[in-house]
Amino acid sequence: MVKDNKHSGSSEYSSTWVGRRTFLKASGVAVLGGVGSTFTSQTERDTSVSTGLTDIRGANYFPSTAWNAYQTWAFYDNSVVERELDMAKSLGLNALRVFASYEQWVEDGPSFFSRMEHFLSECAARGIRPIVVLFEAPPKGEPTEYNRTATDPTEAFGVHSPSRQIILQPRRWSGYTRSPLHFARWWAQKYATDSRLLATEIMNEPGDVQPRQDFVHDVLHEVRKHASSATLTMGCKDFQFNHVYDTNDELDVHQFHMNLPRDSKAADAYLQEARAHRQETGKPLWCTEWQRTLTGPPNRFLPNYTSLAATIENAHDNRSLDGDFFWGLMLKPAYLRDPRSKGRVNGVFHPDGTPFDVDDYAALSNGPRYYPTSWDTHSFPYPNPSVSDD
């Protein structure tokens, strides 16, 4: 498979690119993160994929002290993270999805990597492998200093990474030592093949608009060039977007999101599409964002993982899914501005480890776990949910 390179930010990348997986299979090189250049048989590779990239149960994680990716690392507190990883372990989770921060790396690269090292080590100690998302593209929110650091719940939301100004100017993707591609290269060389990592996700919900599509392709190529055996994926909102970014077979795992299906019947129908996609592509498929049904009682703006947990588990059983990540581990108002303005709340645990809802905790639990000392349901200290639609 040969492709002409048309992405302006990849001047160092070869103008003719042979499909990576095709090349690696022909060479007998393993393709999982942490395996490196070990030569294995096809049977051994298939076994590694089935055990390493399937049966994944996870959650999206922002520490209780953070409102966005920048704050996750700029305000990083070892004791908070360790306590909250214990909460993830109590649910029997074997994975988390966490967002890196290009902006925090630009500000203080050694600090970012030191905190990432602590995070990966503490995850490994609990049998948890994280997906780390390199870049983010929410509908609103530039990474200004105010937007990155705001802690007032009425002002603190997810932000772009990198900024739209950078995305719109391809010369800024790679032309200086703190460029996004430089960050991607550092990540690839330092962590992308680390055995403690489940996968590297290039960007969350990049869509398919130009020039972000070109930017994401360039980042994907950069990581792959410097970490040929890494496990790479893309935060695709729908199945179709995987085809946009996997044109050269560079993605090891496909993704989709299933936020707020109307009811379990609608979720089942969507998961049938997931099964068809998985069978068509032959690649592991993860649902990396799900919350609840839109119409489930008692209040459709509060957490209700019970409304979808059985549906998700059934999708694992019938091999429609290889992994799922609910949003999110810690109880918070919605990550994005619009759903938060309507009163949307997500999450399982209060900062002290008490579950917001006992039924949700039970529905999400998988395997051995410990129980919190208190089962009292707390009231949520934010404005009451509205009655308007999402």
TrEMBL record:
Xref: InterPro entries: GH, Glyco_hydro_5, Glycosyl_hydrolase_5
GO BP terms: glucan catabolic process
One Gene Ontology molecular-function label: beta-glucosidase activity
Keyword list, A-Z: Carbohydrate metabolism, Glycosidase, Hydrolase, Polysaccharide degradation
UniProt-listed Gene3D superfamilies: Glycosidases
Top-level taxon in the UniProt lineage: Archaea
GO CC annotation terms, alphabetical: cell surface; extracellular region
Pfam families: Cellulase (PF00150)
Location of the Glycoside hydrolase family domain: 66-291
Protein name: Cellulase family glycosylhydrolase
Organism in which the protein naturally occurs: Haloferax litoreum
